[in-house]
């Protein structure tokens, strides 16, 4: 989870580096290539389902290259303990950074993020994500890469002060000419369709000549829903700031007494995770530490 403390110079430099994009493909350093290759081979060898995302997926679907020191691997939460167990057996330093959504495997300055959903627990990786993966070769390994729709969906709530993926979403729509399974994207957004509309409005503002890349019926549907909502105010509607960013909207909860509904989403995710852990074989449990 992010801290309220001011970012260090090192953090600022890392964020700047991770945000730098280019149409020129950036080669993987040899150490990173070897590390990612070993991780992906381990996942393949043990039959674990996964979807490579992050910079690799963004490059595949948009042509954008981005410097990165990590490999993002999406997988179902119930498969994370087994993945950590096998990676730890290979000598990687493993940890559970957040029991709701994030585990890590490290070697030197490089690491792999095992991601089972969004930090706010609104979007959770399930079997449907695995069924939609596409074949790809990553670091010389035959792998599975996340579908473009799920990549877009995974970025809907990355709208924090220190990281904003709205530009990635706009680039995905632009570079695919909007040839996307919009029903899938609507499904991922679910009851939080306003966040999708907000991102589409940003796309339209950035690329007004390409408004048609978002189907007209989708514009009409979402704008109709929005018009309906603002014409019928709901005085009891919950405050949703903590779903966007629990740090930026912390004052609303701590000082102004508004409800932190993110806690409910995360509690339900942890409950599902504990049920899966109870049903899993004991030898799949990792020995990494929780933070």
What is the CATH topology classification name? Beta Polymerase, domain 2
Highest-level CATH class: Alpha Beta
**Number of E-state strands:** 10
Tally of separate domains:
1
The run of helices and strands is HEHEHEEHEEEHEEHHHHHHHHE
Give the CA-based shape: globular
Counted by DSSP, the helix tally is 13
Q: What's the overall average pLDDT, rounded?
A: 89
Structure description:
46% of the residues lie in helices and 14% in strands. It has 291 residues and is an alpha+beta fold. It has helices at 9-19, 30-45, 54-62, 80-89, 127-131, 148-154, 166-175, 182-189, 193-206, 216-231, 241-244, 250-254, 262-279; strands at residues 21-22, 51-52, 65-66, 70-74, 93-98, 102-107, 110-115, 134-138, 141-145, 289-290. The strands form 3 sheets. It has a 6-stranded mixed β-sheet with strand order 2-4-7-6-5-10. It has a two-stranded antiparallel ribbon with strand order 1-3. The chain has a two-stranded antiparallel ribbon with strand order 8-9. It is globular and about 60 Å long. The termini are close together. The longest helix has 18 residues, at 262-279. It has a single domain (9-290), classed as 2-Layer Sandwich (Beta Polymerase, domain 2), CATH 3.30.460.
Q: What labels describe this entry?
A:
disordered C terminus, two-stranded antiparallel sheet, 46% helix, 10 strands, 13 helices, 14% strand, 291 residues, alpha+beta, six-stranded mixed sheet, disordered N terminus, Beta Polymerase, domain 2
Map the helices and strands:
Layout: H1 9-19, E1 21-22, H2 30-45, E2 51-52, H3 54-62, E3 65-66, E4 70-74, H4 80-89, E5 93-98, E6 102-107, E7 110-115, H5 127-131, E8 134-138, E9 141-145, H6 148-154, H7 166-175, H8 182-189, H9 193-206, H10 216-231, H11 241-244, H12 250-254, H13 262-279, E10 289-290
């Amino acid at each position: 989870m992010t801290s309220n403390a001011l970012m260090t110079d090192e953090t600022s430099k890392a964020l700047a580096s991770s945000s730098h994009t280019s149409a020129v493909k950036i080669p993987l350093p040899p150490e990173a290539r070897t590390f990612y290759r070993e991780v992906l081979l381990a996942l393949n060898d043990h039959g674990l389902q996964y979807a490579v995302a992050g910079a690799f997926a963004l490059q595949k679907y948009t042509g954008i290259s981005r410097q990165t020191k990590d490999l993002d691997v999406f997988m179902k939460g119930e498969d994370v303990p087994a993945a950590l167990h096998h990676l730890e057996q290979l000598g990687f330093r493993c940890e559970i950074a957040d029991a709701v959504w994030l585990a890590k495997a490290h070697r030197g300055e490089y690491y792999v993020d095992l991601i089972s959903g969004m930090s706010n627990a609104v979007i959770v990786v399930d079997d449907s994500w695995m069924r939609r993966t596409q074949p790809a070769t990553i670091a010389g390994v035959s792998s599975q890469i996340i579908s473009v729709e799920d990549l877009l969906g995974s970025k809907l709530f990355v709208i924090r002060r220190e990281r904003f993926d709205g530009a990635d979403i706009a680039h995905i729509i632009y570079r695919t000419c909007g040839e996307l399974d919009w029903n899938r994207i609507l499904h991922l957004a679910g009851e939080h369709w306003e966040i999708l509309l907000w991102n589409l409005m940003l796309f339209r503002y950035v690329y007004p000549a390409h408004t048609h890349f978002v189907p007209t019926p989708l514009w009409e549907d979402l704008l109709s829903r929005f018009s309906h909502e603002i014409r019928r105010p709901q005085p009891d509607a919950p405050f949703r700031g903590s779903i966007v960013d629990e740090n930026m909207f912390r004052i609303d909860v701590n000082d102004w007494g508004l409800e932190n509904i993110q806690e409910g989403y995360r509690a339900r995710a942890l409950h599902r995770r504990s049920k899966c852990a109870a049903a899993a074989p004991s030898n799949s449990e990792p020995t990494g530490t929780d933070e």
